[in-house]
Amino acid sequence: MEPILSVEHLSVTFTRYGRGLNRVELNPIRDLSLAVEPGRVTAVVGESGSGKSLLAHAVLHLLPRNARVGGSIHYDGAPLTRERAVALRGREIALIPQGVTWLDPMMKVGDQLRRGRGGGEVRDRCRAALERYGLGAGVEELYPFQLSGGMARRVLIACAVADRPRLIVADEPTPGLDIRAAGRVLGHFRELAEEGAGVLFITHDLGLARTVAHKVVVFREGQTVDEVPAHCFQTGEGLTHPYSRALWRAMPENDFL
Amino acid sequence: MKHRLKFTIKKLLRMALLLLGVSLTAFLLMDASPLDPLQTNIGQAALGTMSPEQIARLENYWGVDAPATERYLGWLGGVLRGDFGVSLLYRRPVLEVIGQRLAGSLWLLVCAWILSGALGLALGLAAGARRGRWPDRLIRGYCLTVSSTPAFWLALLLLMVFAVWLKVLPIGLSVPIGGGQATLPERLRHALLPGLTLSITGAANIALHTREKVIDVLDSDCILFARARGEGHILRRHVLRNVALPAITLQFASIGELIGGSVLVEQVFSYPGLGQAAVAAGLGGDMPLLLGITVITAAIVFGGNLAADLLYGVIDPRIRRGAARK
Hints:
The complex is a heterodimer of chains A (257) and B (326). Chain A is 32% helix and 28% strand.
């Protein structure tokens, strides 16, 4: 299947001024390659603070100006340039961010969902997106601080789904949720994939990744070290890379002692 | 409704304590001042020609011999009954003098307040939105220069350029000399330079603070998310909304700075306002007038901050709805 998103040898470098005029180079992503197929969930698993979020920002061209990006990102068969990314953001490519702080605290949920666009069609689509995740029309009148953690997460997903995107980039969308709530959120991702979207699911939690994803990409110290079907992490069979095996063994049920 | 009442009572109590403290401090400073009111207001030569009885009567009038506690408590008792006393220099009730002077200063202050707020907000937004690029550098450089310039020096500079060299604006006072009843355009012409001085210094501070806030907001996750969703008009839709609260704080906090600045600026322009009266009262040993001005201006500044607090409740949904829910 032709991937909707393919990332090859991506690197992200930051140049910062350290003490005095010394320039410090930070290189959180050195060599990252992956492909996201439509209708599939691809999980990127890496340690907390390993720069996974930068992958999401690089795809959407949201990196700060002092970042340099190397390698190539292709979307739908063509290079994803800045102009193209800007045109596709919020239309074909949607971001599901980490939490409620990504909503404007001073604006009602409904207004944010509609992005200042009026019209009955937009209104209906947004209402349908909220309803899909069990949120009533009353939620539109709430401010972000009035949402519970789970509600906020569902609002953020609704934001993405209202656009009917072809590629969904979900950046750690479950921290702070209990297992059942997280399970529901992940179920939504699977659902979106079944409707034909490609889902890039970025997480530190291998347990979650292997239940929801079709494919797991293991990311360590700025590089992709392994790419395996998710079921390999269920049984441990077919894991060849030593780091992947170590990861699998580190899970509580796999006698990590 | 209960929280509103509690809030108001708490604020009023705080205001009473503040005014008490301010008046006491002003009184003690005045009392410690080495100025002899007799020598300052009557003059060494005139004093020499007076009889001891006359001098004693004058000393009694200026309250030279009365102990400090007695004088302060006497003043405080009068104020609590609504009597601010009589100005020793102007020989009229203090409230009347203040009212007249305040009317002169008020529209100078109001104009400067609105102008500096609007100008500061606009410059701050423009600089913050283009951080690091040339408009930002230009605005920041200008603001830093102006805010490190003393207001009175700027006033002298403007006076020199517009009144002395170009001769397009009057050199001082609030009405033409000997003009009798002044027309509105004439008053405006006279208020222009002092108003401009106050606005320029005020706007620079507000612009620098607003710029920082705009940058904070632009760096926040919610702006990133808005961009990720392809939203347009981010500055108007999100930044302005989130900058509104700090902007209100700055705007109302600037009242204090404005009144402080007006003391010097009015002196430079010989503008007969409250600030000039404060200087005259301080240097002339006119205790009732000085205490009156101090207390009234402190109340105005406090009122400004209170207005900002109340406006938060109107603007910020977290306070408005959060409080209503309790």
